[in-house]
User: Fold this.
Amino acid sequence: MDTRIDKHGMREILLNFPKQCREGFNIQIPLPGKKNFKKICMCGMGGSAIGGDILKIFVERDSQVVFNIHRDYNLPSYIDKESLVIAVSYSGNTEETVSAYKMAKKTGCKIWVLTSNGKLYKFAKKDKIPAVQIPSGLPPRCALGYLFFPCFNLLRKLGIIKESVTPAIFEKFEKYVLSFSKNNSLAYTLAEKILNRVPIIYSENLYYPAILRWKTQIAENSKNFAFINVIPEMNHNEIMSWHFPEWFIEKTIPIYIKSSDYNSRIKKRFEVTEKIISSFQKEKIIINPKGKSLLEKIFYLIILGDWVSYYLALLNKVDPTEIREIDLLKESLKRKGK
Assistant:
C-alpha cells in the first residue's frame, strides 16, 4: 500500500497488535485493597474505554456485579465506599478521566489505575493507589492490547469473570493479522465495498463492543461515517428509518454480523430484518466471526475492523493516524480553560 498516505506507520502498528496483546496479558498487576465488590465503574474515553465495553459482556454473563463504563467528568451517584472505580487513560491526561478520579477520591471508594503516564499516574503514585503503567508512544486507539488485558486479568483475579485465556489465542490473533494484511484480503475487499458508502452495522448485543470499535475506527482512521445498532432493539424503531432520505439510503451499505452464538429468535430476526431492508437497499455484507471462544470472536471482529478502517483510509487518500480535528478541539479547550 501507499506509504505516502500512511505517513505515521499505522500498518506497522496493526502488524504488531498480537505482540502487544501478549505483552499486555503478561503485565503483573496489583490488586485493590479488598476483593468483594458489588459495584464497579470503569472510567475512560475513546480508545481507553472500549476495553470496558468488552469486559461488560463477560461481567454480565459471569457475575451479579454491577459494572458500567462511564464516559464523563463525574461519577454515577451509586458509587460509594464499597465500590471500585477503574480509571483508564492511555495518556494519563484525559481530562474527563482525571476529573472522575478526583471525584472517586472524595467518595472514599477503592480506585485502580491503568495508564502510560501523565497526571493520572502521578496522582495515583502520590495517593498510593494501585496503578499499572503500560508502554507509551501509540495512538490511544491502537493500544487496545495494553488497555484491555490488564483489566481483564484484574477482573479474573477478583473472581468476577470466568473467561480464560491461553497463549493459543494470541497465535490466532497473529493468524488473523497475517491474513488481513495481505493484498486482496477480506479486509481490503470489505474496504472497497464500503468506499464512498455509509456502513450501517448490525449485530446482536454480544458483539456490540466489536461494532462500536468498527464505528470509532472508521471515524478516526478512515475519516468516514458509520452507524451501528443491535438486534433486537433496532427492530423496534430503526428499521423504519430505511425509507428516507432516498439519497442517503442509496449511499448506505448494510453490514450484518451473524454468529452461531445467537439464539433461535435472534437468528430469525436477522433473517427477517435482512429481507425487509433488502427492499430498500439490495447490497449487503455478511460477516461471520471466527474463533472457539466468545473473546476470540470479538477480537476477530476487532482485528478485521481495524484493518478495514486502515484500507478505507488509504482508499479515501487520508493518513489513518492523523486526527487533526480532535487535536484542534483539545487545543481549543486548553486555551479556553486558562
Q: What stands out?
A: The CA atoms of residues 169 and 292 lie 9 Å apart.
